[in-house]
Amino acid sequence: MIRLVKRAGRLALLAAAAAVVCAQPAVAGGSDLAVLDAEALAQRSQWTDQLIVKYRKGTAGFARADAQALAKANEVVDRAGLQMRLLRRDARHAAVMKLDQRVTVTRLREIARAVAAADSDIEYVEPDRLLQPMATPNDTRYVDQWHYYESTGGLNLPGAWDTSTGSGVVVAVLDTGYRPHADLAANVVGGYDMIKDTAVSNDGDARDSDAKDPGDWTTAGECYTGSAASSSSWHGTHVAGTIAAVTNNASGVAGVAYGAKILPVRVLGKCGGYTSDIADAITWASGGSVSGAPTNAYPARVVSLSLGGSGSCDTTTQTAIDGARSRGTVVVVAAGNSNANAANYSPASCSGVITVAAVNRSGGRAYYSNYGSVVDIAAPGGDMRSASANGILSTLNSGSTTPGSDSYAYYQGTSMATPHVSGAVALMLARNSALTPDQVESLLKSSARAFPATCSQCGSGIVDAAAAVVAAVGGSTGGGTTTVAEVESNNTRSTAQSVTANPAQVNGSIASSSDTDYYKVTLAAGKTLSAKLTPPASYDFDLYLYSSSGATLARSTLGTGQVDTVTYANTGSSALTLYVRVLRYSGTGSYTLGLTQ
């Protein structure tokens, strides 16, 4: 983040004190897997030619491993116009059957239900699905971008990339401008230099259509009496790279929404930037009219503001934000780097924005991050006190004053957390462009995962990009729902987490292959419990409902990325204790569990 300070009767922005380190050498190699188009992957995974038939223990079908045991199953499959043979028994002693042709998973699920219905000895039948490698970028330094993929403090991006890359969405970055970095330039469109004062602009002229960053270095005493000299930050280039660096080019870093486009709007220069310029930039970037500026050919659906300063939200900025929102633009802002209440900073305290706090690699609040009731959500911002690699890696420039060569560097700050959220919003809007700014905020918060470490007053949780994209496709969560964070350990019925809110939305996660989550619910007489499980887009979690004695009452075991639902009616005269279980079939990550009665 950049912060506002008073200077000679005007507001100026100064670079935050967060440390900046030199770029590290590129890591050789990359992913061993070819990166495949997400749509093609999805289509490929919808066909299979194998079926899994599991008999209950103690039945003849479980004990035998021959065609006779599978006679009833074969009859059903024959009627469907297919033939199958026993291929093998798996580790659970289930029969893996080979069909004579590949069919859609949807059709095979229908056949599986018929097979199960025909034989009471069968425990379950399900398609033996063909899974595919996830959309892992081949960028050489992706391995250093822990903030994208690590389950503790990361954004859960790989699952989101399977279904959205942000294609068709424009994100405006209001910052120091940009450098035409080889790992960024192809995703830059349009742009404008909104800085009116030539002493601030540092490029020899006032407002124009050139948004490139000439550098924002200062000499000692230049900004105010006693101010220190500073090198050029290339801050806007770093922020833009996090949002939409060119990805899958076997070089450099990846971007959160690498299918999106960046609209650079230059508002920060030497010693910062004026509130009036920033407000005009918000208006222009979102498609509004600004006197003297040309019509913006690329109106942005997202405006990303990694800047701010002390003091509550001013009328000028709030009016600009209100205008942007009226045009359907989502405004994402940094909470600030002062380890203080964000209510005392602007634009973090403005209405209608998504205010972002920063977490470190452990998923707890970064030591510098602002906090408070105005904070909506958190995202990776890094903490480089122990090692530079704990920061956020993105595109930069090597020049200490004027531009040098392309480079990469680790930064830390809520400035770095904000573009993570801006990119996640672009992923959501690419899947559902009809979402309003308020719906985007609501879905981001309701799909966030619980903090794995202490992050008091950091908002609803850490943004979960994969869950947010799933939520975007499903639309709004509706009003009156209470958000409940999962509390570990809840791996057994005896340690089940009690959920009393109705309706409730549980934000949970499956952290390992051995993790499973139980929730205890009391169902009143005459009421019906509805449970809805939304897994990560690229993984398969299943939903089970048990009685107080552990008997299975209902279950839903649909495939990868599909929403499982179960219902159960209490027809008795007294309340029942029920246990809802989320069970991993494949993958790990965050999920949402809706409970209504």
UniProtKB/TrEMBL annotation:
Which UniProt keywords are listed? Hydrolase, Protease, Secreted, Serine protease, Signal, Zymogen
Q: Where in the cell is it found?
A: Secreted
Q: Which N-terminal residues, if any, form the signal peptide?
A: 1-28
Pfam families reported in the protein's UniProt record? Peptidase_S8
> InterPro entries, from UniProt?
Peptidase_S8/S53_dom, Peptidase_S8/S53_dom_sf, Peptidase_S8_His-AS, Peptidase_S8_Ser-AS, Peptidase_S8_subtilisin-like, Peptidase_S8_subtilisin-rel, Peptidases_S8_13
Q: What PROSITE patterns does UniProt report for this protein, alphabetically?
A: SUBTILASE, SUBTILASE_HIS, SUBTILASE_SER
Domain Peptidase S8/S53 stretches: 166-461
Look up keyword Kinase and say if it applies.
no
How is this protein annotated for GO cellular component?
extracellular region
Among CDD domains, the record links this protein to: Peptidases_S8_13
* Tree of life domain: Bacteria
Gene Ontology molecular function? serine-type endopeptidase activity
Catalytic residue list: D175, H235, S415
GO terms, biological process = proteolysis
Family the entry assigns? Belongs to the peptidase S8 family.
Protein name, UniProt field: Serine protease
Q: What organism, scientifically named, is this protein from? A: Rubrivivax gelatinosus
Organism lineage string: Bacteria, Pseudomonadati, Pseudomonadota, Betaproteobacteria, Burkholderiales
